[in-house]
Amino acid sequence: MLIIFAALLGGGIFLAQRILYARWWDKGVSVTLQFEREMVRAGESVKLSEIVENYKKLPLSSLKVKFQCSRYLVFADCQNGMVTDRYYRNDLFTIMPYQRITRTHQITCPRRGYFGIEGIDLVGADLFFSEELTAERESSAFLYVAPKILSKQGLAPAFRKINGEIAAKRYELEDAFTLRGIRDYEPYDEMKRINWKATAKTNELKVNERDYTTISSVRIFMNLKDTSILKSQELVEMSICICASLVQEFLYQGIVVSIFANGTDCVTGESLCMEGMNGPACLDTVYKALARLDLESQMPVFGDCLGRKLFEENSLYTVFISHDRHEDYMELIRRYQKRAGDGFAIICPVEDASENRPVTGLEDKIIYLCEDRG
Asked: Which of 33, 49, 244 is nearest to 145 (CA)?
């Protein structure tokens, strides 16, 4: 009789805890994933905090926290992870009532991109591990990995040519707020420039002479479409690194920069278009936009995407960046040269100097930069 009673009692306890866990196991359970910083540079490391909290009286002897992210986020601790097309993480916790557990993961970011962890799966069990219980939690952990900034030594040929031509092409505009002096009236002067007070004093027409301000602006056009048979994503990525490096240098020099590319934003799905950026304060915005460029989606032809924008303004200095030298692309630049003149440069990243073959009609405009392997 005692054995039967013990069996019934044990069965009752087992059934009660099973019902209790089935209904309440995930109540008060929260999981938070949070990157230490919003943005890092390609090649740098960052910490990911995994915070698990149990705000109830029911203990959890087994709680598996599963999430997935890009395989380009490399975890230092690989014991609880698996890499296929993505990185799959499975961490096991035992958490008592009203307890918080924090684990910190060291992650290396070898390449540019915009990476997120958008969902978390929870797998729990009752006290006797008789069944698996599942739940989901949302996550808003996102990380920008900005392009690598190339060394000034590697970019020296481009900087020398571009800075020299920009200096020669600088144009002047009158500054409406600065008066340089007063001079005699000339037939080509406008009536609004006449200084009537000085004219009354001298009985001769006098005009205000304004000072001049020097304004420099640069447009950067990136062609990220790779039409070659042997695709080279490394050189396409280098094009983006070159763009980031040039923009950083230009903005520090006080040059107004606009960027256009036929690559699409992985969040908005639109082609990159950033105009009128001025000053180093714009750099974070530029880095984030370049980080979100998606090279795996279908990319439009450069001329179809940006041809109209290219020919809208001919007075600004223009920099073309592309490792692809498809004839249609080069012909578009020749057409631009006929219409806009010589105020442009072409930067072409290559793997080695042997690829520095001339391009007909553009020999003095093209700058070959070897891949930075440092």
From this structure: 244
